[in-house]
Write a structure and sequence with these properties.
The protein is an alpha/beta fold and 516 residues long. The chain has 3 domains: 154 residues, no CATH class; 112 residues, no CATH class; 125 residues. It has a 5-stranded mixed sheet. The chain has a two-stranded antiparallel sheet with strand order 6-7. Strand 6 and strand 7 form a beta hairpin. Helix 19 packs parallel to helix 23. The longest helix is centred in the C-terminal third of the chain and has 21 residues.
């Protein structure tokens, strides 16, 4: 009877209060079951993840790294597994996917099988050696609350993490959660009525839609494309740009009343403006308080004028006859016909003064946007080859930049692998440490030296722990060397390059002098 009293108390704690007179009591068709711990699966679309995780190993590592699951494991060993709160799960593909309590479940499962969290395996095993008797007392089965589907569970999750019941989700996490609820049967009005803990549903939908738009934008800069798709770019920060009355149209964004994107960056000029703005966020230049949140300040006004010039740069005749002035009027009509997609300010010449996007011939093709980065035949090293490196290594970078990905994909993969391994070893050599062995051991050295370095954590985890033919993983890099049945494609190499670029930038940057 104790467990059922506890369950009744939990349901009351979730907001199922006594019915008021004359009011209909909504029934949530959940079911409490006792299930095996090993049948519980982490939610790879957990709203705490900036992007969905591709496998459970990455999900375990992410939760251990970002949310101190090792501390949760210590607590379970010290205090035991308590049943005062039940994990919320949904049954999918014959497994119970954990929607709520991923930290607790990941700690419990990792204590049963440390290999589930590869990056923390040694620490978990050391913990178990000290507390083996306590670990033996942990349950093989636990009670969970099973919901028929994610839609039914959504109001409960929102109440817990967007209200005050539990640790609140950040705005990016809330946006991902809200967007996941929208279906043909669930609209914005329904969400406003049911997710009462959310103050501004439309704002969160807008955040989620912008994230989607960025993921499908044909960027010309692979580094910026990786930044836009990663967790370092927060929509709660980027919205200072896309909600700006002056900057929003320059990037090509517009929205309807429900927060959906009605237009997005598509022309070369709009993409160039977007890349310039994202580059500012990546470098920290566009401080929201100093620049974007001070619309009367000179820095904001100068930025807007710069973006206008990128979108619609002056013609050569205008450049030669006009003097530089921040007040020079700019045509408000976006023009892809004479826009440099890299934002250099050099305009393409029209065929005649009266030509425009409607009358231009097919031979000129001014409206054609830049190719998707993954379709290019060679890698753009994004300034990596400009960093101070030994002459022999510079020659290797030059070779990497010159090699045809379509004609020699396997050779390009092996060369990129060599570049990463050599960069790691040179990085430590410059700091007085010798790193030997192949790529796997070299990556272990990076992980041990920089366990909390966020800018390289994704690349390190991919190299160290990802399993299967995932572009950029250690297994993917090693496969062409060890098997004659492996096929590498140019898009995979581009993807691997995007994943490895932050790591290479970090490794090849000059060592900072010690602080006296």
């Amino acid at each position: 009877m104790g467990i059922w009293k506890m369950i009744s108390g939990w349901r009351s704690g979730c907001g199922e209060s006594e019915p008021t007179k004359g009011a209909a009591v909504p029934r949530v068709p959940e079911e409490v079951r006792r299930v095996k711990v090993d049948s519980l699966a982490l939610d790879l679309s957990n709203f705490r993840f900036a992007v969905d995780q591709s496998n459970e190993s990455l999900a375990f590592n992410y939760l251990f790294e970002e949310y101190d699951v090792l501390g949760m494991a210590r607590s379970l060993l010290r205090e035991g597994y308590t049943t005062n709160e039940l994990p919320l799960v949904v049954e999918e593909n014959s497994r119970f996917v954990v929607l709520e309590a991923n930290r607790r479940v990941s700690a419990l499962r990792a204590l049963r099988d440390p290999s589930l969290a590869p990056a923390y395996r040694q620490r978990i095993e050391a913990l178990l050696k000290r507390h083996q008797e306590d670990a033996d007392e942990l349950p093989d089965e636990i009670y969970v609350t099973v919901f028929p589907d994610r839609k039914t569970a959504a109001p409960i999750l929102a109440r817990q993490h967007i209200g005050e019941d539990k640790k609140r989700w950040g705005l990016d996490e809330q946006a991902k959660f809200v967007l996941a609820q929208l279906t043909d049967e669930v609209d914005v009005k329904y969400l406003k009525e049911t997710l009462t803990g959310i103050k501004d549903v439309v704002r969160l939908i807008r955040m989620g839609r912008v994230r989607e738009a960025l993921l499908s934008t044909n960027f010309t800069d692979a580094d910026i494309a990786a930044f836009a798709a990663g967790q370092e770019l927060k929509m709660s920060v980027f919205e200072y740009a896309y909600r700006s009355r002056e900057i929003q149209p320059l990037m090509g964004f517009s929205f309807d009343q429900d927060g959906n994107v009605t237009s997005r960056p598509e022309s070369p000029g709009q993409i160039a403006v977007l890349e310039r703005v994202l580059r500012g966020f990546q470098s920290g230049e566009l401080s929201t308080r100093r620049v974007l949140d001070n619309k009367k300040g000179d820095a904001y006004k100068e930025l807007v004028e710069e973006l206008k010039a990128i979108l619609d740069p002056p013609t050569q005749s205008e450049v030669s006859t006009s003097t530089p002035s921040s007040s020079t009027p700019v045509d408000d009509t976006p023009s892809g016909a004479n826009t440099d997609p890299h934002g250099s300010g050099t305009a393409k010449q029209p065929s005649s003064p009266s030509s425009n996007s409607e009358t231009t011939t097919d031979e000129q093709q001014p409206q054609r946007g830049p190719n998707h980065p993954d379709t290019r035949d060679k890698l753009s090293l994004q300034g990596i080859d400009q960093l101070p490196v030994p002459e022999a290594f510079a020659a290797r970078l030059h070779e990497l930049r010159s090699i045809s990905l379509k004609s020699h994909p396997t050779a390009a993969t092996m060369l990129l692998r060599s570049v990463i391994e050599a960069a790691i070893k040179e990085h430590f050599a410059q700091r007085g440490t010798t790193v030997s062995g192949e790529l796997g051991r070299a990556v272990d050295a990076v992980f041990r030296a920089y366990p909390k370095e966020r800018q390289i954590s994704q690349a390190v985890q991919l190299l160290k722990n990802a399993r299967g033919p995932i572009a950029g993983s250690g297994e993917w890099f090693n496969a062409p060397t060890h098997s004659m049945h492996v096929t590498i494609t140019a898009p995979e190499i581009h993807q691997a390059w995007r994943e490895m670029l932050p790591l290479l930038r970090f490794l090849l940057s000059p060592a900072q002098p010690a602080t006296p």
